[in-house]
Design brief:
By secondary structure, the protein is α/β, with parallel strands linked by helices. Helix content is 33%, strand content 29%. Helix 6 (178-195) links the parallel strand 7 and strand 8 (198-202). Bound molecules: adenosine-5'-triphosphate.
């Protein structure tokens, strides 16, 4: 049997909004194997971002059990959750969020600056991940000198540089043309198949979801079907 990366049992998330309680996620249960590439789809407001925030340790569930990379996240303090996230999760955004005044190399190096690695080790890692995403010849370009697809590949390299087992992507191809989107999806597929990364990707695009091994559909905060 495949080893599990994510084991989610009966998790709910509620917020107090004035006098009413809003529950964007209700009693979700599912598992994701190590190295699996999972797509998450659902209409606007169905709870996709809320779930992604729980899976990436940005927020905590209100109830249930959420075990990721062998750690129970339910009930962890903010501080412990932040430490866990730094080690275990790489986050990829729709709009890249690169620092405009830093080169591709410097953007990717940024998350490593607080690590214990020597400068030599740091630089070797940055070079290796930028080569892995096919940007070995763009190390010293600024984001404004790159195409959208290349910027997203820098962002993926930045998410990978700390070698986290889990990558979480929020509409990573939402702002790209078809060809660039396909290249990003191919890269994510390769990261799961060849590098054992577990990937959870939110998308509105059924063609993007086809690149994944499996799709979970959310509807009003609940899982409706597993394809
Ligand atoms: N911090 C919060 N406080 C109160 N309500 C919230 C909060 N975060 C999310 N919600 C509510 O939870 C529901 C789900 O929101 P969420 O952003 O997870 O949906 P989504 O599926 O990602 O939508 P979209 O595709 O539009 O990004 C929405 O009704 C939203 O208003």
């Amino acid at each position: 049997m495949n080893e599990l990366m994510i084991r989610c049992q009966g998790i709910s998330k509620s917020y107090q909004k004035g006098k009413t309680v809003v529950t964007p996620l209700e009693k979700l249960s599912f598992s994701v194997a190590k190295g699996e590439f999972l797509a998450l789809m659902g209409p606007s407001g169905s709870g996709k971002t809320t779930l992604l925030n729980l899976l990436s340790g940005i927020d905590s569930p209100s109830e249930g059990s959420l075990i990721i990379a062998e750690t129970e996240l339910m009930g962890l303090s903010r501080r412990d959750l932040t430490r866990w996230r730094a080690k275990n999760v790489g986050y990829i955004f729709q709009l890249y969020h690169l620092v405009p005044v830093l080169t591709a190399f410097e953007n990717v190096e940024l998350p490593l600056l607080l690590s214990q690695l020597s400068k030599k080790e740091r630089h070797a890692r940055v070079r290796a991940v930028l080569e892995l995403v096919g940007l070995g010849d763009r190390l010293h370009h600024l984001p404004s000198e790159l195409s959208g697809g290349q910027e997203q590949r820098v962002a993926i390299a930045r998410a990978l540089v700390g070698d986290p087992p889990l990558l979480v992507a929020d509409e990573p191809t939402g702002d790209l043309d078809k060809e660039s989107a396909n290249r990003i999806l191919g890269l994510l597929g390769r990261l799961s198949r060849e590098h054992g990364k577990t990937i959870v990707m939110v998308t509105h695009d059924p063609r993007a979801a086809e690149a994944a091994n499996r799709t979970l559909h959310l509807e009003k905060g609940q899982l409706c079907t597993t394809v």
